[in-house]
Hints:
The protein is of the alpha+beta class. It has helices spanning 5-19, 31-38, 42-54, 92-100, 121-127, 159-162, 178-186, 204-209, and strands at residues 58-61, 65-68, 75-78, 107-109, 113-118, 134-144, 147-157, 190-200, 220-229, 234-243, 247-250.
Amino acid sequence: xxxxxxxxxxxxxxxxxxxxxxxxxxxxxxxxxxxxxxxxxxxxxxxxxxxxxxxxxxxxxxxxxxxxxxxxxxxxxxxxxxxxxxxxxxxxxxxxxxxxxxxxxxxxxxxxxxxxxxxxxxxxxxxxxxxxxxxxxxxxxxxxxxxxxxxxxxxxxxxxxxxxxxxxxxxxxxxxxxxxxxxxxxxxxxxxxxxxxxxxxxxxxxxxxxxxxxxxxxxxxxxxxxxxxxxxxxxxxxxxxxxxxxxxxxxxxxxxxxxxxxxxx
Length: 265
């Protein structure tokens, strides 16, 4: 039994995409051109495009047309297992160091954006504070080879700055890491952390920065890391948003051989 015409058209376009005839990031012919090429109705062409969209092969931009989704080489982030470390992606220096370890990748980060704001329910829950309690947020946009790769926001109780950690209010990068800074200024020593990972649709702000489709066609990983001091009290909540189309994660525990990727085999 033959497939419906729209499926046949979608399969032919899929073959062109996978073969490279329709290059990554390139624009598909217009609906009118596809109608002429395949001798099909407008609705049939639209059904074919809809199927390709569902397969994650193309994306339609309002007023611009339909484009082949650009395939990205995923970056593998190793999440730290050291309970006393402020690394694992939670500080700019550790992020730049980890990405720089891959000689094919060039990391960069935008300026730190600092704000004093009332805690949302999520932030208040992570820091064990009441909603609307004043917190300091430090946000950083991160790139790999000039492409937006992740968005990270760390939250601290505003009282930390009042007690002597004034640099939390400054947009300057803390090269020593904020965990080390809090230890030196307030005597707060991180002894552990909890990571909570979810997958969700991006917010409008996240989709705009990460250049994701507004319809939620590409989801994001949301990793919320709460750091605890020796008294079992939270001292920082870090929320990092990673688009699923360009990120993978690696956990290694104990003595394991060096990771060999398919390209290294």
